[in-house]
Automatic annotation (TrEMBL):
<protein>
    <recommendedName>
        <fullName>WLM domain-containing protein</fullName>
    </recommendedName>
</protein>
<dbReference type="Pfam" id="PF08325">
    <property type="entry name" value="WLM"/>
</dbReference>
<dbReference type="GO" id="GO:0070628">
    <property type="term" value="F:proteasome binding"/>
</dbReference>
<feature type="domain" description="WLM">
    <location>
        <begin position="142"/>
        <end position="339"/>
    </location>
</feature>
<dbReference type="InterPro" id="IPR013536">
    <property type="entry name" value="WLM_dom"/>
</dbReference>
<dbReference type="InterPro" id="IPR029071">
    <property type="entry name" value="Ubiquitin-like_domsf"/>
</dbReference>
Length: 350
C-alpha cells in the first residue's frame, strides 16, 4: 500500500489479483489495492452466487480460517501476499444448489406425509387384549356365501405414480378365475389386497415380493419394478400371491406350508379356464428347493407369515420383533420356469 508522505511512491498502487479455489476450480478476482476482506466476500457473492454468510475462506499460510461475519480489514494487512505458498480456498454452497436441496427436501417431506396418511388410513390395527384366536384369524369366514371368499378391498398406494394402473392390476388378480376358485375352495376371505412399495422393501441384498399380515388380514404384493417404471410379470405375481395365501394357514416355511403352497398353485392353474384346456400335468410349480437354489439373486418372496403385533401398512416389521428365518424364494427362477413353459406351449401349437 502506498505511503502519501513518501515522495518516491506513486499516488496509487496496482490492483490486487487473487486466485481463489472453489470445488477444485480456480477463480481469479481483481480488486483495488485498498479493498477490504468485506469487499472480497461481496465480490465472491456477486460472481459465484455464494452469500457471504455461506462463505468460509481457508488462507494458507496463516491467518488460517475466516468465516462470516468478515471484518472490513484491508486485504494487504490480512493476506500474506508476498508468500510464495499463498493459497486461498473457498468453502461454500451456491444459492442455486441450496434452492435445489430445499426443493428436494420439500418433495421428500411431501412424499413422506402422503405415505404416513396412507399408512394411518389403511394400516391394520393390533388385536385387542383378550380377543380369542378364532376371532383374530380373519382369513376365513363361516358363511356359506361364496362371495365372501375374495379380496374385499383393493388398494393401490396413492403416493406412487399411476395408482389407477395398479388398481387395474389388483382387480385382475381378484377376478382371476384360478385365484377365485382356490379362495373359494379354502374359504379364504382377505379384507385388503394392496401393492407393496418397492422402495420400502428393497435393500442392497434382497427384494421382498410379498407379505401376509396377521394370517390374511392384509396381503401386500410387489407389483412394480424397482424403478417404478413398469410392472412385473403377471404370472410371477400370481405365484407370489399363492405363496401369501398359504400363509393364511401356516406362518412358518415348513413342510406343511410348502405342501399347501404347491396345492394352491395347482388349484389356481386348474381353475384358470382361460388356459384353453391345458392340463395340470403339463405345468411346473415351484417348490422349496427351487427357491433355495437361487436365493443368492436377491428376490425374496417373504421372510415368513407375520402374525400379531402392531404395525402399519408397508412397515418393516411387527411389534415385539420378527422371527429370523432363511431367505428363500426367488422370482427369477419362477420367471425362467414360466418362460420355458411358454416356449414349450408355443412349440406344441406350431
Amino acid at each position: 500500500m502506498s505511503d502519501p508522505s513518501d515522495p518516491n511512491t506513486t499516488t496509487s498502487d496496482p490492483p490486487l489479483t487473487l486466485k481463489i479455489h472453489h470445488r477444485n476450480t480456480p477463480h481469479e478476482f481483481t480488486l483495488p489495492s485498498t479493498s477490504t476482506l468485506t469487499d472480497l466476500t461481496t465480490l465472491i457473492s456477486s460472481t459465484l452466487h455464494i452469500p457471504p454468510m455461506n462463505q468460509k475462506l481457508l488462507i494458507s499460510p496463516s491467518p488460517g480460517t475466516l468465516k462470516h461475519p468478515f471484518p472490513p480489514t484491508p486485504l494487504v494487512e490480512i493476506l500474506p501476499l508476498n508468500s510464495p505458498r499463498l493459497k486461498l480456498t473457498l468453502l461454500g454452497t451456491p444459492t442455486k444448489d441450496i434452492d435445489t436441496l430445499n426443493a428436494q427436501s420439500t418433495a421428500q417431506k411431501t412424499l413422506a406425509e402422503a405415505r404416513h396418511r396412507a399408512h394411518a388410513l389403511y394400516g391394520a390395527k393390533p388385536t385387542r387384549t383378550g380377543t380369542s384366536a378364532s376371532t383374530s384369524r380373519i382369513h376365513t369366514l363361516s358363511s356359506t356365501d361364496s362371495s365372501n371368499y375374495t379380496f374385499h378391498r383393493l388398494l393401490p398406494l396413492p403416493h406412487l405414480p399411476n395408482p389407477n394402473k395398479s388398481l387395474t392390476f389388483l382387480e385382475r388378480l381378484r377376478a382371476d378365475p384360478g385365484i377365485k376358485s382356490a379362495m373359494q375352495k379354502h374359504k379364504f376371505s382377505v379384507p385388503l389386497l394392496t401393492e407393496m412399495d418397492p422402495a420400502e422393501h428393497t435393500t442392497s441384498e434382497s427384494r421382498t415380493l410379498g407379505l401376509n399380515r396377521n394370517k390374511g388380514e392384509v396381503i401386500e404384493l410387489r407389483l412394480r419394478t424397482d424403478a417404478y417404471d413398469g410392472y412385473r410379470d403377471y404370472r410371477t405375481i400370481r405365484k407370489t400371491l399363492c405363496h401369501e395365501l398359504a400363509h393364511c394357514v401356516f406362518s412358518e416355511h415348513d413342510r406343511d406350508f410348502w405342501d399347501l403352497t404347491a396345492q394352491i398353485e395347482k388349484e389356481v392353474e386348474r381353475g384358470d379356464w382361460t388356459k384353453s384346456g391345458r392340463t395340470v400335468a403339463d405345468q411346473e410349480f415351484y417348490n422349496p428347493g427351487d427357491w433355495e437354489g437361487v436365493r443368492e439373486n436377491g428376490l425374496v418372496v417373504d421372510e415368513e407369515g407375520w402374525t400379531g403385533g402392531e404395525f402399519v401398512l408397508g412397515g418393516q416389521g411387527r411389534g415385539g420383533g420378527r422371527a429370523e428365518s432363511r431367505r428363500e424364494v426367488l422370482a427369477k427362477a419362477a420367471e425362467e420356469r414360466m418362460k420355458r413353459a411358454r416356449e414349450r406351449e408355443g412349440e406344441g401349437q406350431s
